[in-house]
Amino acid sequence: MKARITVAVIAAVAVTGYGSATATERPERASVQPSAGPSRAPDARRKRVPNEVGKNHQAAQDHLQAQGFFNLRERDCTGRRRLLLFDRNWKVVRQSPRAGSRVSTDRIITLCSVKYSD
Known about the structure:
Elements (H helix, E strand, L loop, with lengths): L1 H15 L29 E3 L8 H10 L5 E5 L13 E7 L5 E3 L4 E7 L3
C-alpha cells in the first residue's frame, strides 16, 4: 500500500511540476485575458484577392504569397483527384474566393488547376 501511495505522489509531482518548487516559490501561471469578441489573429488584414485564372499555378501561388495570402489550397480541376506535384506543369482555371473579393489574409484561397497536357 505504501508503494502505491509513493508512486501516486511521484506521478502527481511530475504532472503538476510542483515538486521542484519550494513552499514559498510556486511556478507562475499564465493569466487568462477575456476575449473581446470573435477570435481573430491580430495581424489578419483584409485585402482584395488578385485574379490568378489563366496563370501558371506556381506563379499564381508566388503572387498570392507576395500579396500576403499564405493559406493556400490546390485542386485538380479535372476531377481525377491528382496531386499537383510539379506546380509549374499546371494552369489555374478557377479560384475561390473570386478575384476582387475583399477577404481576410488568413482565409483559405483555393486554386483549381489543370495540367497543360490535358
